[in-house]
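Dear Dr. H.,

I hope your travels went smoothly. While you were away I took the liberty of generating a structure for the chain from your last submission, since the lab meeting agenda had it listed for discussion. I wanted you to have the full record in hand beforehand rather than looking at slides cold. The sequence, exactly as received, is reproduced here:
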Amino acid sequence: MTGITRRKFGTSFGAGLFAAGVASWLAPYEARAQSGGTKRVTHAISAGDISSLDPTLAWVSAEVPINTVVMEGLVSYPPGTISTEFVPALAERWTVSEDGRTYTFMLRKGVQWHHNFGEFTADDVKFSLDRYRDPNVSPWSSSYVNVTGIEVVDPHTVKVSLKSPDPFFLASVATDTESVGLMVCKKAFETRGASAMRLSPVGTGPFSFKEYVPKDRVVMVRNDGYWAGKPHLDEVVVRFMPSSAARELALRTGEIDSIRAALDGQVIDRLTKQGFLIDSKGPEINWWLHVNTRMKPLDDIRVRKAISLAINGADLRTLLGPVATPAIAMVGLSYFGAAPPEAFPEALRRRHDPETAKKLLAEAGHGGGLKLSMVISERDDYRQMMVLMQDQLKRVGIEVELNKVDHAFYHSQIVKHVNPLILFGDITYPNTEILLTRAFRTGATRNFSGFSDPAFDALLDKIAASPSLDERRSLLHQAQLAVAEQAILVPTVFTGQPLVRNKRVDLGYQLKSSLALEYRYTHLARLAS
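The corresponding predicted structure, in token form, is as follows:
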């Protein structure tokens, strides 16, 4: 692990280091294959590697451009849009019972698993959803607590029963996602074993998994028998490039075709002027700084309030550029049930007040200062934001040692609760209930703060059981106020998701919103002549 400070961060791209780093990534792989006539798109992600391609296990945004083109859900969203107007995918149609508690999916016949694993059937659906539901297997089990059973009616019909009506249930089995919903192959798991499937996925999507080279790339090849039509591209390659400078240079030299841009207004402006296409899409990423109450002295609410008051969202907005909005409330307003700033009492609204922060630390017995140590992802957005907040916290007497690690390792550590502070950018189907359930239900995987309150869990249950959207909205506001009162979370900024591509890359649809934080190349994507 590498310790970093703001000074080190600012000087880390010296000429020699920059040249060496870029040279290591600009390998001739793409140029050789492209010259042979292969229609390939190469997308670079900001992580140095990946940790899992099994969607039923923990996975992060770095794996999204791989998993969501190899595997699919029962339903999908209209291309380039997140909405409640779901469209057929592996299920060609579905019905919902009058009481809203039973979903019956009629599966598309003849869909084949990659690598000759046979036809996709209702047994695969049951196997997949049962893996997601099993808390001993999947960190996403809390997303399926409302599911009471999965019944295989026949090879192409499956029935899902819910404890209570859920108007958002289809989002739990949809394709364009950064967490749950993708179907996995029962036969492949039984034949290969779960451990082998972790980095060798089998799906039904437009591209099949071919190769994983650690710390370098994943290669996916065209699925000629894809049910929705033969893809236009021959290959999709995902490269691992944690250096934003290397990604930008590789984009300009044509070594790669697309990137998720750094959250930096100057970079976006520069790439726009150079003729690249910028796709700025929603919904917002909610950048939350969780405070781990399992660690002393963070179990003292005065210390937690001091941390919150030390953080200045306006400075973060200056750092990140126009894609960022300082958070005053808790959740981005495009999410259903997000409480607006005026719903919070003045004392609970996010504000920057370093003098009050110092007084609270003194009252808590830390007037002489406080020292914390944490790991932070090497990824640009995480690292840049945390280095800035390190400075802000230092001004009120809180010294934070930052130890830089690769992005996959960062995620493996924060779920083990090793950090006193956890920076996490969360995005999901725009429903506040999902965010709150992930982050604050007792025992949830992303409950980084250690918050546990039976009354709050009961409130989440009440929200999930409510058939009324108006009641859900009101209860969600109540839940956000309850979290704010505990000072276990610092909402910092909400950001858009700027993606950049070469003009020769045609997605095949207009990208307005997506839950995949990177480009998702489907069978519709093509290269302009």
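Two observations you may find useful: Residues 469-486 form the longest helix (18 residues). Confidence is low (pLDDT under 50) at residues 5-35.

With kind regards,
E. W.
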